[in-house]
Amino acid sequence: QVQLVESGGGLVQAGGSLRLSCAASGRTFSSYAMGWFRQASGKEREFVSIIRSGGSTYYANSVKGRFTISRDNAKNTVYLQMNSLKPEDTAVYYCAADSGYGGFYAPTANAMDYWGKGTLVTVSS
Fold this sequence. Notes:
Blueprint: E1 4-7, E2 10-13, E3 18-24, E4 33-39, E5 46-51, E6 57-59, E7 67-72, E8 77-82, E9 91-98, E10 114-115, E11 119-124
Parallel strand pairs: 2-11
Antiparallel strand pairs: 1-3, 3-8, 4-5, 4-9, 5-6, 7-8, 9-10, 9-11
């Protein structure tokens, strides 16, 4: 039983930075893997990054080296620091939780157990 609320989206120029936050309500937050997905207009939802309960991370190739995922279990919050943003990063970004993820690979969207409503990131050229 996890409720997720994203924040931090907005409009930024190419090359700029944003930090997204996802606040979770459940006491079991620390046991979940937490991921970020994004969905651009007219496209399918795609994996961005995930962090395991122990802190290990995995990134999509499209964001590797530019984005950093982190978590603060004491605050029940996961973050996505986005640097060197590109217009192709424009999308609605969703936070998601998975009770059973334990690998180093990109999970599919339908494998996640809980979702936030999303926050819009727009990168202009």
